[in-house]
Amino acid sequence: MTLSVYLSGEIHTDWREDIMAGCKAAGLDIAFSSPVTDHAASDDCGVAILGAEENKFWHDHKGAKLNAIRTRKGIEDADVVVVRFGEKYKQWNAAFDAGMAAALGKSLIVLHGADHQHALKEVDAAALAVAEEPRQVVEMLTYVLRGTLPG
Amino acid sequence: MTLSVYLSGEIHTDWREDIMAGCKAAGLDIAFSSPVTDHAASDDCGVAILGAEENKFWHDHKGAKLNAIRTRKGIEDADVVVVRFGEKYKQWNAAFDAGMAAALGKSLIVLHGADHQHALKEVDAAALAVAEEPRQVVEMLTYVLRGTLPG
Amino acid sequence: MTLSVYLSGEIHTDWREDIMAGCKAAGLDIAFSSPVTDHAASDDCGVAILGAEENKFWHDHKGAKLNAIRTRKGIEDADVVVVRFGEKYKQWNAAFDAGMAAALGKSLIVLHGADHQHALKEVDAAALAVAEEPRQVVEMLTYVLRGTLPG
Amino acid sequence: MTLSVYLSGEIHTDWREDIMAGCKAAGLDIAFSSPVTDHAASDDCGVAILGAEENKFWHDHKGAKLNAIRTRKGIEDADVVVVRFGEKYKQWNAAFDAGMAAALGKSLIVLHGADHQHALKEVDAAALAVAEEPRQVVEMLTYVLRGTLPG
Amino acid sequence: MTLSVYLSGEIHTDWREDIMAGCKAAGLDIAFSSPVTDHAASDDCGVAILGAEENKFWHDHKGAKLNAIRTRKGIEDADVVVVRFGEKYKQWNAAFDAGMAAALGKSLIVLHGADHQHALKEVDAAALAVAEEPRQVVEMLTYVLRGTLPG
Amino acid sequence: MTLSVYLSGEIHTDWREDIMAGCKAAGLDIAFSSPVTDHAASDDCGVAILGAEENKFWHDHKGAKLNAIRTRKGIEDADVVVVRFGEKYKQWNAAFDAGMAAALGKSLIVLHGADHQHALKEVDAAALAVAEEPRQVVEMLTYVLRGTLPG
Amino acid sequence: MTLSVYLSGEIHTDWREDIMAGCKAAGLDIAFSSPVTDHAASDDCGVAILGAEENKFWHDHKGAKLNAIRTRKGIEDADVVVVRFGEKYKQWNAAFDAGMAAALGKSLIVLHGADHQHALKEVDAAALAVAEEPRQVVEMLTYVLRGTLPG
Amino acid sequence: MTLSVYLSGEIHTDWREDIMAGCKAAGLDIAFSSPVTDHAASDDCGVAILGAEENKFWHDHKGAKLNAIRTRKGIEDADVVVVRFGEKYKQWNAAFDAGMAAALGKSLIVLHGADHQHALKEVDAAALAVAEEPRQVVEMLTYVLRGTLPG
C-alpha cells in the first residue's frame, strides 16, 4: 500500500522536513506533496509571471489563484491531509485546506499546540487524529502502513 | 428562482440580521440558514445533552460534532455561502466552512474588513465576491434574483 | 429548516415512537422514515409477493432485497441517520446501515447501551454523536433545529 | 487486468493468509490490503501514539479513528471487498465495512458459515457472491481474472 | 414518504395503466413517469419538429435523442425504475434503461415472463426484485410504502 | 412532470420571451430561468456594488463572477439547458455554458442559424437537439411533457 | 496517452480478436478488457464455485452476479466501451452494458449490422460512433490516439 | 508530483509546441495531451472512417463526435486545462472545453490577447490564471511544480 500525504499549513518551522525525514528513515512508502513554502515566492508569484498590479488585493489574488493550482492538485490526490497550525498568524488558508479535505472525504490529521485547542475544535472534530508533534505523525503513518506501534 | 443562503462565521455582531432584514425588505425569495449563534449554547451543547467530560478537549469535541449536524446541513443545502470574518478571534471555523463550501462547488461570498485582506487571500481567491458590508450582500442577492442594481 | 431523519436498527422496543413523539411534542419540523418494523412481514415479504422458495437462503434473499428498496430510499433522502443497537441479536443490518450512511456523508447518530461500547467503537468513531437514550436524540434534534438546550 | 481486493472482518483465523496464498499459487495479479490484524495493536494504537485516556470510550475512539485511516484507504481503493464473519463476537465493524463498500459501489463478497445466514441476509443481499470457504474466494478471483473454472 | 417511480420498457400492453390504477386504488403516494408510449409519435418526433431526413438512420437518431430528454429526466428523478420486457421485439432500449438505472444506483424492478429468464439473467442480477405480473409490482410498492402484505 | 429549463446565450432578440410565451400558451409545467439580460446591468454589476476598478479587466472580472452566482444556480438546477447563438458577437459565454451543461449531464438543446453550423459542430455534437427557431423549442418541450406532436 | 477499452457484447464471432490484432499491428497503446467469452464457463461459474441450485433462476443468478464482478471492473476502468450486437439472440446484457457505460459518462462505440439499425436507435443515440466492422473500430482508435486517418 | 496538462483551443499557431518545448527544456514532469491539430483530418475523420454523408451537418456531426472521444479523455484526465483563443475564427469549441473543464473542477488557464478581454470575461472569471504568452504558461507550470520564479 502506497500512501499519498499532503502537508498543509504553517511554513515557518521544519515540521514538514521532520515528518518526511522520519518516514524516510522508517522506509515507508509515501508520496508527499505540499504547497510552495518559499514565503516570498508564494506571495509574489502571480505578479511576477502575469504582470504587476497596483492594487494589493489583485496582487494577492493573482498569487493565491496560481498557488491554488498546486494546492488543489495536492489535496485531491491525497489519501491523508495533515494540517499544521503554528503559534503565530491567522493561518486561515490552513483551516480552508482542512475544510476542503473534509468535504472531499480525505483522512484529516491536525497538528497544533494545546493553546489552540478551543479555537480549533470544529477543525479537530472533522479529523481522524489530533497530534502535537511531527513525531506522532510519523508514528501514525508507520502504524497505518505497517501495523506496528512505537517502542 | 428561490435561493438558499447559508450565513457562516462571526457571531458577535448583527450582520446576519442586517442581511436578512435587508432581503426581507426587498421582498427577495431567499431561505436563510446559519449556525447556532448563542455562544454559550454552542460551546456546551455536547456535554449538556450527552454527558459531562473532565477533559476540555472532549468537552469541545462533543459540542463541535453536534454543531456539525446543523452546519453541514446548512452548507450542503445552500446555493450561496456567505462567510464573514470579524475583527477579533481566530475564526478558524469560518475558514473551514469556506473550504467546505469551495470543495462542494457552492457560490462563495466572503465578507471582511480591509485589514484582513492579505491573510484571507486564499479564501478570497475561491470566492465569487468579496465585500465589506452586509448592505453589499443584500445588493448582490437582489441583483442575482432580480437583475436590478442599487440606486 | 426541515430535517429528514431515518431511524435504523432495533425493532423490538419503542425507541422510534419515543423519538417521534418527543419531537412532535416539541413542534420540530422533521420528516421521519424507518424500515418496516413488523418483523414477520419484513421476513416474509419477498416470498409473499414474488413466490415461495424452498431454500431458506433465497427466501431471505428475496425479502432482504425488497426491504432494501425502502431502506435505501430512507437513508439516501436523510440528513441524519440514527442507528440504534439493542441488547439482543446480531443486528448486522444496523451496522450495515451505519456504514452506508457514513459512506454517503450523512450525519450519523448512534444509540446504544454502555455494554456495547467496545464492540461498536468503529461505528461510534464515524458518528457525530453517541447517545444512550431516545430522550437525548430528541434533545439533539431540538438543538440542531432551534439552537436551544434542555432545561 | 490487475485487481485490488480488500479483506475485511474476522481476525482470529487464517482466512486472509489462505486466500492470499491460494491466489499467489495461482499466479493471479491481485493487490491485497486489509486492516491491522494485530488485535492488541489495533485496540491501543490511538493512546499509544496520541496519549492515554482515562475514559475507555475515548481510548477506543482514538484507536478506531486511527484505524479508519487505513480501512478507508483500503476500501476506497478496492475493486472487490471480501468481508468475513467468523463464529464469534459481534463483528459490527465487519458489517459496517460491508455497508461502506455497498454504498461506494464496490463488488462485495461475503464469507460466513451457514448458521449466520438469516442474521446476515441484508448484507448478503447487497453482495455479488456469498461463500463459506476461503477456497471459494480463490476460485472466484481466478475466474474473474482468467475466466477458468476449478477442476 | 413519497416515491418516484419510472415505468420503462414495453409499450404494447396495458401494464403501466394496471400498475398506476392499482396504486391509485391503494391510495399510495407515488409520482409515476414513463416514456412517450404513442409508438408513431415516438418514432417520428425528431423529424416532425426538427425537419425531415432522407437517411433513416438520422431520422431515428433525431427521434431517439429527443425522447432521451424525457427518458433521462424520468430515470434520474426516480427512486424506483420498473422495466418490463414483453413477449416480442428486441426491446434493447428497455435493457439500456435498466443499465442506466443500475449505474445510477436506482432500485430496479424487472418484469418479464418465465421464457425470458435466461436471456435476462444479467439484468435480473442487478435488480432488487424480479416479477411476472403488474399486480406484484403494486403489492411491492404497497409494501415499500406501507409495510403491509397482500391478503 | 415539472421541467426546469435554463435559457442561455444571446440577449439581443426576444427568443426567451417567445419560448416562455409559447410554453405558457400551451399550459406546460415549466420553471424557466435565465441570466440577467439587461446588458448594461450585467456589465457593471460588479463595480456598482463592490466598488470601482481602474483596470477594465478587474471591472469585468467582478461583474462576471457576480453573474456566475446566478448562472451556475440556473444551470445546476436545470433539467434542460437551451443555448442560443445569435448572428453577432463572439458569444463565448454561451459556448462556455454549453460546456458546463454537457459536463453536468444536462439535456442540451442548441439554437442557431444555418450559417453557424460548421463552427458549432462540437457544441451540436454534445446536444440532444439542434433547432433554428424558438417555435421548435416550444414544440419539443410540449412533446417531452405531453407526448404530443405539432399539427 | 494510454487508452482503456472494454469490449462488450456478442461472443460468437472473432470481432474482439480482430480489433485487438488490428490495434496491436498498428502499435497502439491500448489496454483491452472484456467479459469471459467462454459461454459454458460463463453460464455455470456461479454453481461450479458456490454450489448447485435446483432452480434455474438461481443457477443463472449466481453466475450473472459473479460475472458482474469482472464486467463492472471492465466498464468502470474503461475510457471507451465498444458494444457489439451480433445477428442472433436477445443480447440484452449488451444493451445493459451500453446503458451502464452511458450513465457513467464513458465514450460509447456501438457495432452492429444495418438490419438492427431501428431497434438500436436509443443505444446508437447515446454513442459517439456507430460502426459496422471491427476494422472501423481499429481505424477510430488509431485516429483517437494518433490523429491519422486510414489510407 | 507529475502534472497532466491538456492544451485546448487554437490550432493555427505553434503555441502548443512552444509550451511543450519550454517545459521540456525546464525538465518538468508533465504529461501533455491535446486534440488532433491536423485541421483536415479533424474535419473529415467521421466520414473517412464511418462512411460519407450528403448532408454537411451529419458530416460534421460524425467528425465532432469521434473527436470527442479524444477530447473528453484529455480533459477528464487533466489536472490543468490550458485554453488558448487565437485572433481569428469563432472558436466556440475552445469555450465549450473551458466550460467542461470548469464544471469538472479542473484548474483552468486561459491564454488570449488583450483585444478579447471583454468577450472572454466569463471564461476568464472561471480561470485560475489568464495569460497572453505561452512563455507565461511555462513559467506558471514551473512554479507549480518547482516553486521557483523566472529570472
Structure commentary:
- Chain A is an alpha/beta fold.
- Chain A has 6 helices and 5 strands; from the N terminus they run βαβααβαβαβα.
- The first copy, chain A, has helices spanning 15-25, 39-50, 56-77, 92-103, 121-125, 134-146; strands spanning 3-9, 30-33, 80-84, 107-111, 129-131.
- In chain A, helix 5 (121-125) links the parallel strand 4 (107-111) and strand 5.
- Chain A is globular, with a radius of gyration of 16 Å.
- The mean pLDDT of chain A is 97.
- Chains in contact: A-B, A-D, A-F, A-H, B-C, B-D, B-F, C-D, C-E, C-G, D-G, E-F, E-G, E-H, F-H, G-H.
- Chains A, B, C, D, E, F, G, H: InterPro entries: YtoQ_family_protein.
- Chains A, B, C, D, E, F, G, H: It comes from Algicella marina.
N-C termini distance of chain A: 23 Å
Note the total helix count of chain A. 6
- What's the CATH class label of chain A? Alpha Beta
Number of domains of chain A: 1
